[in-house]
Design brief:
Elements: H1 16-27, E1 33-37, E2 48-50, E3 53-55, E4 61-67, H2 80-87, E5 117-118, E6 124-129, H3 136-142, H4 145-148, E7 158-167, E8 176-187, E9 190-198, E10 204-214
Antiparallel strand pairs: 1-4, 1-7, 2-3, 3-4, 5-6, 6-8, 7-10, 8-9, 9-10
């Protein structure tokens, strides 16, 4: 496995959702899996998955992949117009801890450009146009940042620590999708969030639960 430099999150490391999705796909488990990131995933580095553990060439543990039970993490959908309006209120357009993030960075014209804005009930929502090439990692990435922005705020950066996802179907290239996110609770430096991805017809394509850690 090799995380290309364009799939970065914080500068110099892989986007957490994209990286976790790559690791999950490599594991090849037909059951839902949970990925725990033990260090920022390195870019342009040959990584190896052995017995559910991802290692770098220096022998450092990068992540762990484990099967999990049912993932009950569905966040209710909103209409595309509501998601588009929410994206205009995306806090990352004003202040972003990682502005070059492949998923939600406003500096990335070649990224997924998912800009989750807050809804009146506290959820986040954003439109998402599926790229020309869609993979499992694409969906995991789309399910990553919208959950984080349910707790992220100016001056309060968080990083993905753990994510479990279930994918019902991949969107087709250029599909106009909607992503929703919700904060469940904050426990010290940890925040538990849920995210869901919906296709153009409103069908649930994937859902995830994640733990974000204040940095």
């Amino acid at each position: 496995m090799r995380i290309e430099s364009r799939y970065n999150g914080p500068a110099g490391s892989g986007n957490g959702g994209w990286s976790a999705g790559m690791f999950a796909a490599e594991a090849g488990d037909t059951r839902p899996v949970e990925v725990t990131l033990r260090r920022p995933p390195p870019l342009e580095t040959d990584l190896t998955l052995v017995d559910g553990e991802v290692w770098d060439p220096a022998g450092e543990l990068v992540a762990e992949v484990r099967p999990v039970g049912t993932i009950d993490a569905v966040v209710p959908p909103v209409g595309l117009d509501t998601a588009v309006a929410a994206a205009t209120r995306y806090p990352g357009l004003v202040e972003h801890p990682f502005p070059s993030c492949y998923v939600c960075g406003p500096q990335r014209a070649d990224g997924l450009r998912i800009f989750p804005g807050r809804l009146p009930d506290g959820r986040t929502a954003a439109p998402f146009r599926a790229p020309a090439r869609v993979s499992t990692a694409t969906v995991w990435a789309a399910l990553d940042c919208p959950g984080g922005w349910a707790v992220l705020a100016p001056g309060r950066p968080y990083l993905l620590g753990r994510i479990a996802a279930v994918i019902a179907a991949l969107p087709r290239p250029d599909d106009e999708c909607v992503v929703t996110g919700a904060l469940l609770r904050v426990d010290g430096r940890k925040a538990l969030v849920h995210t869901s991805l919906y296709g153009p017809d409103g069908a649930l394509l994937g859902a995830a639960r994640a733990t974000w850690i204040a940095s």
